[in-house]
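Every protein is a chain of amino acids, and every chain bends into a shape of its own. The protein below has been through that process, and both of its lines are reproduced in full.
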Amino acid sequence: MAKNKNISAYSIIDFSQCKYKSWLDFVDKPKNYPQNIDPWLEIIRKIGNEHENSYLEDLKKSENVFEINPKLDFIQKEKETDEAIKRGEKYIYQPFLKYSNFTGSPDFLIKNKNLYEPVDIKSAFKMKPENIIQICHYSFILEKKYNLLPKFGKIILRDRSEEKIEIDKFYDYFKNINSRIKSFILDSNEQPKAEKCGLCSVCEYKVYCENNWKNTDNLNQVANISKKQINILEKNNVSTMKKLSELDDETKIKGINKDSLGILIDQSKLQKDYLDKNELSYKIIFDIKKKMNDPSKTIGFELLPKPDNADLFFDIEGYPMYYDSSEKSSGLEYLFGVFYRSFDKYFFKKFLATNYVEEKKAFEDLIDFFYSHLKVNKNAHIYHYNSYEETALKKLSQKYETKIFEVDFILRENKLVDLYKVVKDSVILSSENYRLKTIEKFYKLDREEDIASGQDSLVAFEKYLDSGHKEILDEIIKYNEQDCKSLIYLQEWLISIKPDEIDSPEKIEEENISENSLERIKEELEIKDYIKNINNETEDVIKILEELNFYNKKEQRSDWWSHFSNLQKDTEDLIEDSNCLGGLRKISEVESGPYKIINCNYPDQITKMRDGEYVLDQTGSNRILITQISYSKNKVTLRIRKDKPVPFSLTPQTPLNTRAIDSAVADFIKGYDFTNSYPAIKQFLRREKTKLKNDIKIDERSSKELIEIIKSMNNSYLVLQGPPGTGKTYTSSRIIVDLLRNNFKVAIVCHSHKAIINLVEAIDSYSSEIGYEFRGAYNPGSRKQDLEFKNIEVTNTSKIDSKSYDLIAGTAWALSNQVHRQNSEKEKNFDYIFFDEAGQLSISKLIASSMSSKNIVMIGDHMQLPQPTAGNLDGESTYSPIEYLLKEKNTISDHNGIFLDRTFRMHQNICDFISKSFYENRLISDQTTHNQQVILQDGKSVENGIYLIDLDHNDYSVQNMEEAKYIKKIYDKLILGNWIDREKKVSEISAEDILVVSPFNAQVNLIKQSLGENALVGTIDNFQGQEAPIVIISYVSSNPNNIPRGSDFFFDYRRLNVSLSRAKCLAIIILNKELLDYHCNTIEDMERVNYFCKLKSFEKNFLK
């Protein structure tokens, strides 16, 4: 037993991924187990040590660094560390921290004021979640032992860049893991399962586990089996590969598709036979896979074109640890190999790179070779194995902004043939995996080189970089050549086993690049030159202008690639893609006017698609509306034109046409150096202080003072950040009407028409209330809007003389129209442009819309709903305008905005959590909210605040009867009680006073059924902008394995903020605490789950 063993930062990290490893470490350590020896890991450690020593030596040149003697034992190191902290040493290198049985040794402790900040030096190029857990672990010991909880920690990366970690953003998530590992070590009596996970490749027990799986005939051995399938099989008493292989072909197991189960049974039989007889065998499964897919989809053998003498066979070798300090970039694709035939001879062509200049040149030469070869040999294709090569080509074309249209041609013409896709949908093999080296035994490729795997090639390339020995590089080239050669043998083998009746794909007619596309390329290059010639501007602004050059086109490029990729995917791949919905089966169909309404069911899958969303079918040609989706019943209702076929799968819509936005930003850049052009936009880009005509304090808060501040704006910008309940729309409408009354011309832009209508209704209503008339116009876009305003016309604003109107409202597309921004570098049509929900807009849309306005006012709160983005680009251009100004902060500073700091909705007991978690403790509740109180039917008052309730249920995903029943009890307890509002008015609690919220429509429907039609029940999006005395939130899912739509949706902290902040005095959140055990693979996930972990302190029973 090793229960007294010290718990290090790595122990915490390991436990968060694999409880079985923690069991072996702390509870049942095996004796004499085989070690996992990996030369590549040793190289990573070597690089890390060199990087750390280099940093230390450079630091010592300018600072006094106290180094803990590495030869001391742990007790002495701890003592030296204690003494160094007491003395107040500024830099402590390799300190040893210990509290109870928690130990940690950060690379540095650096004193900042009265606190010590832990710092780790990493050889990686990007910060990882485990780095943050380490920093939190050191912070935990500093807090417990020295009462010195730091506010920040730091990771120093390979390029010497520093990643600052705000401890509070992750500390509750860490403490949750910390408390769980303590309980696990002390109280766990049941051995966890050994499952494959992300830790396996670097784990010391890797070989030990693999041997155990073989000895126990574990299902983990079955090729291509998923963890979910293993769990389902084990629940049905199928716990070994032998038992799986012995199942009858007609066996049905709930949760696994019958055909998928049949393939798993056959796969296990083939593997068992190979283990027993040592004979290779395979089975054609194409017909089964075809039956499982949309019949119109091309899969498996059908993806194999007719072989052509000019076919190319392609493989890339990459080196992830490469770093160029001058480029501040990492990773290198250092060898592109192509094997091909010419005049009945085989040739191998290589493109080599040992730095980024050479990588760009090698990539361009490769693409030029591909492009010219394919243009001459129109029936030729490029064969590769798995997705690495295609991904690398896309990545490099974007990295260097070169050969984009040649790469588009290769993708668009389906010239890349992934032989892995052919294999996986055509045949199963008697092998433990489907890696290229593993399956070569089926077509008997005799390799000659010493390098045996991709991992070996990484080790060899590192040795080459160290030594420069040409023979090492020659060996790698030989290995790459063999990989390319292997593809020829694989292609021939697949053709030889392909049934005769299966046709090869029809040749796609080649498309030429349109003149319009060529014109856009030319314009983009011209704008690059404009940016280079801009005078007297900061490097940061030049950088973001470069990013904004045709930003939307670049951001959408990978979406278009995804769209074309979706058209090639089979049903199984679409089921695996959470952006899609695959494998639909029609249940019923009825006609409704020009449409038909189709009810379908679909197999188990995680999908982000939701009702009210327009999507495309699997062909990408037909537009479909999802009218309803039930995640619990796996059913979806669709509306499609009656002349269109029933879809087999659904894929996302193609991106919106953003040419107008990009063209407007291009015009802005062209006019950038024009004297006094666009001062407000330039101040915004420079993050300068807001400029006012009069000496007014910008931090004043009353409506009257806000109006005076905005009227005093001097060709500048300003942010009005309005947290929940602060009266953002009320305040904005008063300010705009006052500006109109003072003869100012105003424009309004919002991300959504719903938001525009909300604001213009408030403006129209208030102006009517005070008897003021003005002339306004709202552009509804392509949609029909049945709206009536007293002062505002609903019309196409591009076809009117905007100068004769006092107010123009529309989306960014409407206000970026050429009509509104003609000569905008010299003349402005508007005195003010207001961006409502500015946290949901992009910077490019802000610039495009505001070119014709003197002043820019951004209204919004990015902590409630984020800007919809594909997340395909990096850099500050991807931020919303408010996020751009705030950087890492959550609230706007008084230099460039106004923070509405008083909520008239939330009682202090709710507001305190919202303020601390989301608004840097700046939001306060108005004194009148203290009057708010819920009184039960028996006369007892309920303590105001947040209640976390853990029902500790099992196996629920998107619909939960236990939570629905509990909510009914709460509802019945509250209804017909009394509610005292902030003006001390007493009223009986009715259905309108209770909002019931859930992330999932299935649960919404169940709760509504339970509470009755009068109950206000909906998803979080339904209640954005609404409020009630009481909010009840049902999170439904039982544990991380049951989460259906991905962590980014389920743990969205902005949605949590919106949900809780609807409540005036009582917020009840029903959440299984087991959900907080979610393993976070990304830093964003950690930050999201951290907000939920903070709720643990509110756990209490409501139904006493």
